[in-house]
Write a structure and sequence with these properties.
Distance between the termini: 59 Å
Number of strands: 13
Oligomer: single chain
Structural class: alpha/beta
Radius of gyration: 20 Å
Largest sheet: 5 strands, mixed
CATH topology of the largest domain: Methyltransferase, Cobalt-precorrin-4 Transmethylase, Domain 2
CATH class of the largest domain: Alpha Beta
Number of helices: 7
């Protein structure tokens, strides 16, 4: 049995074959996990599908939380003890797919923050943005805009501009590795003009991040010890 969000089910349709499918819309994550748990507890093998990596802004945590709430005694897939087994299969998250398309923006410390306030109060999101900007982390922004949210990215831009230059490189990646993939390079002071949606990941460089042609990279510090033409200092 395959359980997932409509869009993700469509993406893997050629792999599903004649397996039973339960597909639901956005904001129905609890319903999807409940359906998957019901089937699994009845003895059936179930795949709960997420995009990217199931442990990053996805379904693994919710599935475990709901198992705990039901008192389900589950074991991880690497445990040979048998019983009710949950296996979290790693994937390629948007931050990794997007970073590979941009070049190397995440080669030093970075922070990942979602702008969705559906489950997290906006006041808490602002505090995290402020802290990450102050600490000079490269920042990866998930969920920058939805049909009901349009102002949060501009507010995030204002917060970050309080701690770094307007010329800071920014990469905008939408639908990374999919047929409708879009990549735009800009600077932090232009971020409010970016065309973004829920499939977009925003990469904001730190004070050392550089743009080189159509690439963005963040030096890790090798230049402080070695000559970048390959000759040892």
């Amino acid at each position: 049995m395959i359980v997932g969000y409509h869009t993700y089910i469509d993406l893997i349709q050629p792999l599903i074959g004649d397996r039973k499918i339960v597909a639901t819309g956005m904001t129905q994550e609890v319903r999807r996990v409940a359906a998957a748990l019901d089937e699994a507890l009845a003895g059936r093998r179930v795949a709960l599908v997420s995009s990217g990596d199931p442990g990053i802004y996805a379904m693994a945590g919710l599935a475990l939380e709901m198992c705990a709430a039901r008192g389900v005694a589950a074991v991880p897939g690497w445990n040979d003890a048998g019983g009710f087994v949950i296996e979290v299969v790693p994937g390629i998250p948007a931050l990794c797919a997007g970073a590979s398309l941009l070049g190397g923006p995440l080669t030093h410390d970075f922070a990942v923050i979602s702008l969705s306030d559906l489950l997290m109060p906006w006041e808490a999101i602002e505090k995290r943005l402020e802290a990450a900007a102050l600490a000079d982390f490269v920042m990866v922004i998930y969920n920058p805009k939805s049909k009901r949210r349009g102002w949060q990215l501009a507010r995030a831009q204002q917060i970050v501009l309080g701690h770094r230059a307007g010329a800071t490189p920014v990469g905008i990646v939408t639908s990374a590795m999919r047929s409708d993939q879009r990549i735009v390079l800009m600077t932090l002071d232009q971020l409010h003009t970016a065309a973004v949606d829920m499939q977009t990941t925003v990469f904001i460089g730190n004070s050392n991040t550089r743009r080189w042609g159509d690439f963005i990279f963040t030096p890790r510090g090798y230049g402080q010890k070695y000559a970048m033409d390959g000759r040892a200092l």
